[in-house]
């Protein structure tokens, strides 16, 4: 089991990390929510189990998704599409041990600003690539 | 002056950067807070004007973090410990269109950054030990 938590520890959860690796979303919403760079997320294989979630707050950021954060410390924790049982994208840094996670892909790269770039050569997918299912 | 806002628009800020440079912090706390590095620029003292409801949390002996209570967007990291750096405010780059046009010049706590990813390009970096050495007197509130 892999255990994750927000910065202040009020939100705690666990699950089995997928070997998929890190997806970085460079869309404007994620960058605003993620402090400036992309939202960097991993997934669990079988969903998130919460050990403590009193301060977990969901903000509906668009018709496509909502964002879970801790109301006590403001940690940006989860992104999920609407609907029961949808997969949750989890802040990779909610895990004390980075498990040697490698980059898997970058998405919404057409929204990425010029002032930063990432050094890896994993796939870069635009919004159309992602939404069109390519 | 630059104008920025959080994801939901509940918090709006105007600020003058202290200098034309941003830093990215890879420490455990900044990464837990943001998911990746927390990228910010220092506010020119007294220049930060804030409109909207802000929540803060004290996260260490020397600093507090501010965020929007409606959408969770990180707003700033502020030194609270007594000393010459008290009040120094690092404002989140993500609040601003194109990071207010500022360049990323420094990465700190570079040794705490997970090895699985990195920003491209060469720039000044500081390890945790280098940051602590440089700022320890302020951090301890001397």
Structural class of chain B: alpha+beta
Order of helices and strands of chain B: EEEHEEEEEEEEH
Given the C-alpha coordinates, what overall shape of chain B results? globular
What is the share of helical residues of chain B?
Answer: 10-25%
Largest sheet strand order of chain B? 6-7-8-9-4-3-10-11
Shape category of chain A: globular
Rounded mean pLDDT of chain A is 94
- Helix count of chain B, per DSSP? 2
How much of the sequence lies in strands of chain B comes to: 25-35%
Rg estimate of chain B, integer Å: 15 Å
Amount of beta strand of chain A: 25-35%
Q: SSE order of chain A, as H and E?
A: EEEHEEEEEEEEH
Please, what is the oligomeric state? Answer: heterodimer
Quick one: biggest sheet of chain A? 8 strands, mixed
Greatest interface by residues involved: A-B, 49 and 49 residues
Please give the alpha-carbon distance between the first and last residues of chain A.
32 Å
Averaged pLDDT of chain B: 94
Rg of chain A over CA atoms, rounded to whole Å, is 14 Å
The total of helices of chain A stands at 2
Give the % helix of chain A.
Answer: under 10%
Structural key phrases:
heterodimer, A: mainly beta, eight-stranded mixed β-sheet, three-stranded antiparallel β-sheet, 2 helices, 11 strands, 8% helix, B: 142 residues, 13% helix
